[in-house]
Amino acid sequence: MKTVIIGGIAAGLSAASQIKRQEPEAEVVVLEKSGDVSYAACGMPYNLYFKEKPVEKLYAMPLDTIRKERGVDYRLQHEVTRIHAPGKSVDVTDLKSGNSYRESYDFLVYATGNKAIRLDYPGFDSEDVFYFRTLEDTRRAKSFLYENAPAKVLLIGAGYTNLEVADVLTNMKLKPVIVEKAAMILPAFCEEVRAKVMEKAAEKGIELLTGVDIEEKSGRVVRTSAGTFEADMVVVAAGARPNTALFAAAGGELGVAGAVKVDRFLRTNLDGVFSGGDCAEHYVRQLGRNSYFPLGPAANKQGRVIGQNICNPEKMTEFWGVDQTAVFKFFDYTVGTTGLSELQMQTLGKNVVKVTVDAPTRGEFPGGGTMRIVLFCEKGSGLVLGCQMVGEDVVAKRLDVLATAIYKGMTVFEVAELDLSYSPPYAPVWDPVLVAANVAVKKV
User: Fold this and answer.
1) 3-state class of 70 per DSSP?
2) Which residues of the chain have pLDDT under 70?
3) pTM metric for this prediction
4) For the chain, how big is the Rg over CA atoms in Å?
5) Please, how many CA atoms are within 13 Å of residue 417, restricted to the half-sphere of its CB?
């Protein structure tokens, strides 16, 4: 059995590793266009802060480990230029030598990730404009930062990435300006959470403007609908699109958000071809259908399922799906969400009880903080539908409690009875999760 994998970052390497774990004699070829092995992309903004720490520290494992210990034929700087689906082969170009060849397969895994939405306005092809999608993007941005010491940085886009970059740059004694095209930041979050993030940006002296259209860049001047901004450096993080052109050209069917359409077993419409990661759809359990939720955990889980199914074609495993859990850091705040967003609940016509609670994160013990929980449940049944949190100290792990509750289909009545740990260094007697659940119980 021979499997060829296009893309070796998250889903690709996970699939390769699972195949070799179950079938050590199987031939697995990974074709990775870039010069980097699998890496933790979410760590890229924070690497900027550490001048002496190479970006390669973000590698999941060394190339030698992948090749020798895992037995994977992992080829860097090998670009697949065409998929021949009927003949089960791909055309490949070795970007180092320029040589091209054809590689056959029994199974193909399409795991090409996504690509940054690039701005095509005048002037945005200059060397002081950076995108933040790959490790090479990080190298370029980091080199520019330390070699040119920019005094003014403009961040275009106010999603997770640029909010994290703003945090890092501020800690480097820079004062970035953020402009966002949409009328509000973080559209998947409710207003009670967005307001706290905006307050924190103002507290840190960050100018954050919404509803801003970019017009052009001329030298150090960026012209927008909100006026002109001087910038020695521009970082664009305006979203990403699934990287599916190669797949579509081979007759592959696309689905939600232009991602590769997959079934619950992560098979595509092409014979013997699976897909996972940021280029593919993701099954959302609460929606009961595929959506697009590109994050590392889902990519790695999908890769593992793909490897399992390639090795066990007669007894395939379904990808269980995601509950849309995500979290990011913004200065001393943790901002997180799990389950359905408020907009999704409205679209689905859910009869919702919404509870907002501000609570301390610890008992009478130094080092604690406050956090806000916005809990959503179904009127009548009390079924937990979603939860969003923002605040200081331990927030992410409390979010995980609600993510688990959603996964198991729990109600707020059940959450209110959870035996959560208590000790002043870690939590008050009534943990914020329990406080929110008890308030919700009274309103259901």
Assistant:
1) coil
2) none
3) 0.95
4) 23
5) 4
